[in-house]
Amino acid sequence: xxxxxxxxxxxxxxxxxxxxxxxxxxxxxxxxxxxxxxxxxxxxxxxxxxxxxxxxxxxxxxxxxxxxxxxxxxxxxxxxxxxxxxxxxxxxxxxxxxxxxxxxxxxxxxxxxxxxxxxxxxxxxxxxxxxxxxxxxxxxxxxxxxxxxxxxxxxxxxxxxxxxxxxxxxxxxxxxxxxxxxxxxxxxxxxxxxxxxxxxxxxxxxxxxxxxxxxxxxxxxxxxxxxxxxxxxxxxxxxxxxxxxxxxxxxxxxxxxxxxxxxxxxxxxxxxxxxxxxxxxxxxxxxxxxxxxxxxxxxxxxxxxxxxxxxxxxxxxxxxxxxxxxxxxxxxxxxxxxxxxxxxxxxxxxxxxxxxxxxxxxxxxxxxxxxxxxxxxxxxxxxxxxxxxxxxxxxxxxxxxxxxxxxx
Length: 408
Hints:
single chain, alpha+beta, Pnp Oxidase, Chain A, 11 helices, 27% helix, elongated
């Protein structure tokens, strides 16, 4: 067990207790407001025993993490902190987050952060909360903050930093964008989280489960850590298992496809002109630089593609590497039967090859070789001309989804 530092939003230092083997799947724990990472003690120990690495983080202004000099405790600051931490981790963790931590995690993951985590567990953290119970909790925290006889383990200024109404709207909207496996856990005796509100919130997620822990209130992971740990571990083993999927020759082809999908690629549109002077094209991510002398590249085209015959018979063809803003172009050229060039800017190249306008790179190639590649044709081209846009970022494809570059 060791303490690790992370750089958060605005350069603030965040600290976490890290335990377990770095080779095990990671779980990131986020506590609630007015708490510290110590509330997760039993949960962290249980996760490590079950073969998970645990990163138990103190939020800004809490525990051993830095108290920001500017007293920034709005939801934006917390969300950016989390994104910073996730970007510094070597793998995508499952995030287990309680109350305020749950709001932070839901907002971060739902607002274009799904690529940063493997799963999400929300512990008594719906955007709808009972007003009277919330006031009671707030008063309790305020009275604790005003005491002068105890050393504070969180910054009292935190209580004035959050716009609750805006935060709840934001968290509610973010849920509809989260595609990860989600578990929502509610304490059956919780006064802060009405059962019907929790149910409405869970329905907003695409892929969510709901669990209720008997004899537990709002501090469900603390009140009944035994039942909470059993529920959490069951979810993890079913939805984000520890074992690595294993493809053997002759077994499930989907496993092999998923394994191949672990290699991140760019996205290209392969184009050519038909003998009738009509442009054809298709989306392909099987693209490789082959040689500089002579200048060769290759693309792999499915034998079932309707554009294959034109492309493999053409003397010249184009490979257009797409940038991050051209996801709609990729989708259009991936769908059969669509008039792919009707709404896509393009122009003719020097060899009469149709080139996608504004692409990250346009390669104009002469046909060099064709090879059989199982259910694909391997088309090797000699690059006759290449022009590129150095100021744009590529559209990436990883594990069946579009991605973008992320710089820590």
